[in-house]
Amino acid sequence: VLRRVLEQHDGLRTRFFREGGQWSAEVVGLPEEVPWEVCDLSQVPEGEREARVLEVARRTQAGLDLSRSPLLNAVLFT
């Protein structure tokens, strides 16, 4: 499903970079692997799950780099 999303949305396959003092963008091809991970919350106490989700979300968002494609990271929480 994530691969299909990347196929359909060029913006997610765009990288941005500064060149000569100006921003430029380049649409690139599909990555060999779509960046995603599984986060198993089954062993996390119920009262701590929200904090764990937020921690993983922050880490995942911080990993986005506008100079690299794709502009997508996904996490499946189980």
Q: Helix fraction? A: 25-40%
Work out the count of structural domains: 1
How big a fraction of the residues is strand?
Answer: 25-35%
The profile of the biggest β sheet is: 2 strands, antiparallel
N-to-C CA distance: 17 Å
From the coordinates shown, what is the CATH architecture?
A: 2-Layer Sandwich
Strand order across the largest sheet: 1-2
Number of strands: 4
Overall geometry: elongated
| SSE arrangement, N to C | HEEEHE
> Which fold does the CATH topology refer to?
Chloramphenicol Acetyltransferase
Radius of gyration: 16 Å
CATH class: Alpha Beta
> Which residues sit in consecutive blocks of at least 5 with pLDDT less than 50?
none
Write up what this structure looks like.
- The chain has a single domain (2-77), classed as Chloramphenicol acetyltransferase-like domain (Chloramphenicol Acetyltransferase, 2-Layer Sandwich).
- It is 27% helix and 26% strand.
- It is built from 2 helices and 4 strands; from the N terminus they run αβββαβ.
- The strands form 2 sheets. A two-stranded antiparallel sheet has the order 1-2. It has a two-stranded parallel sheet with strand order 3-4.
- The longest helix has 14 residues, at 49-62.
- It is elongated, with a radius of gyration of 16 Å.
Search tags:
78 residues; alpha+beta; Chloramphenicol Acetyltransferase; two-stranded antiparallel sheet; two-stranded parallel sheet; 4 strands; 27% helix; elongated
